[in-house]
Amino acid sequence: MSSLRDAAMNSKAWPFEEARAVLKRYGGKDPAKGYVLFETGYGPSGLPHIGTFGEVARTTMIRRAFEIISDIPTRLICFSDDVDGMRKVPENVPQQEMLRQHMQKPLTSVPDPYGEFESFGHHNNAMLRRFLDTFGFEYEFISATEFYKSGRFDDTLRLAAERYDAIMGIMLASLREERQQTYSCFLPIHPETGRVLYVPMKEVNARDATITFDDEQGREWTLPVTGGHVKLQWKPDFGARWAALDVDFEMYGKDHSTNTPIYDGICEVLGGRKPNHFTYELFLDDQGQKISKSKGNGLTIDEWLTYAATESLSYFMYQKPKTAKRMHFDVIPRAVDEYHQQLRAFPEQDVAGQVNNPVWHIHNGKPPESRMVVSFGMLLNLASVAGAKDAGALWKFIRRYAPEASPEKNPDLDAAAGFAVRYFADRIAPTRVFRLPDDRERAAMEDLVARLKVWDGGLDDEALQSMVFAVGKEHGFEPLRDWFKALYEVLLGASDGPRFGGFVALYGVEESVALIERALSGELA
């Protein structure tokens, strides 16, 4: 443990850097509450998306890193702001008209359009927990509805009434003049309609911990701020939650970064200590737009898991959290292959290298052995030319290439073969565009066929790659990338592909000859 802890204390891996900052927060002393509290927040206005998963995955990585460098106990809370009023109907859910009748009601008061749960908020919370449980996260779930109604938040809400002017001072400084006229950090929940009201306060009574306001019809109401009758606006809610729970660490997206001084200030006004922060870059869809729960753009967790194992998604989340990421289907194959490259490297690394390896953080220091003797990218191309309908069809080629491999000995490879067939059928086959070769490309491919027909070098990837390379050079391709691009476009219907020598080794020399001859005869195009 000492050598591991020493390596962790010097690691440049971002989870260890953040963990050391949290440890420094207490200056060598244990927290008065007896543990360090990590928190993630979730707004259940729509179905959970991959960004939500990423927040919990990354926070978990920091939590595990902290547990290596410190003996202080830890907790991770996933907090759902399900008292938030539904401001718009998500585009990707059923019963749109029914939902429109419940606008501005807390999400846990909106009927579930799927008819499965007590409310839409309960449904989305259940989806979040199912997704998180799929990955084996250890977390405690808190619903804001329960938090407000049970009284757990009451002391902080009373303090907010007492220090209302200080909170408003922070908030008003961040608002336009027009918005300042009607803003209040308290949002009453109408006793009759159940809607969350955005109305100015006529009075905030600190002694009684009540608010007085007029509703949209001009009727005056007085409500206690406690017991779930009132909620806080989302920015004050952030800081108040930190104060109430004594949160030590929370990460959030770059779109929140300008609000950090507001969150911190309100936390401190309410007697709390601002937590450590980590701001990550946003997830984008294939058009470069921010992923939105209400739009349903970008990848969902279920969509990723349709085409790859869970670990590949965790690997994707680990990589460069401060760099914006496109979350689209085409990132999956690379994530799978890079993950297995790191798995293969891990046993050969010293402790310092291992704690900097992404798979250490994905598997809490105990990564499995990779049995992927064929890359996912290669499996995709094999599925393409073999016309495979299931993983079994690929194993005929895999066994010849790697005789010692089997579905039983290589379960990760077997699973990847199934994913590859599905990914090819859904994501690649509909987009393929084959073309005929031009005269120079045809001459080079005919030369390649001639050499393959007399090939006696076995299924040696490197030797085959060198031979294909030599054909391109001898036929004047400059840069050589154009030669390989021509092979991919003519034979696979795509502009990118595998190392061609490796592809021939896996698919087979005779089969590759037949494929090239079919392309030259015009069968593919």
Automatic annotation (TrEMBL):
Span(s) of short sequence motif 'KMSKS' region: 290-294
Catalytic activity as recorded in UniProt: tRNA(Lys) + L-lysine + ATP = L-lysyl-tRNA(Lys) + AMP + diphosphate
Gene Ontology MF terms in the entry: lysine-tRNA ligase activity
PROSITE patterns (UniProt xref): AA_TRNA_LIGASE_I
Location of this chain's protein in the cell: Cytoplasm
Transmembrane segments: none
Motif ('HIGH' region): 44-52
UniProt xrefs under PANTHER family: LYSINE--TRNA LIGASE
HAMAP family for this protein: Lys_tRNA_synth_class1
Protein name: Lysine--tRNA ligase
Annotated organism of origin: Tabrizicola soli
Lineage: Bacteria, Pseudomonadati, Pseudomonadota, Alphaproteobacteria, Rhodobacterales
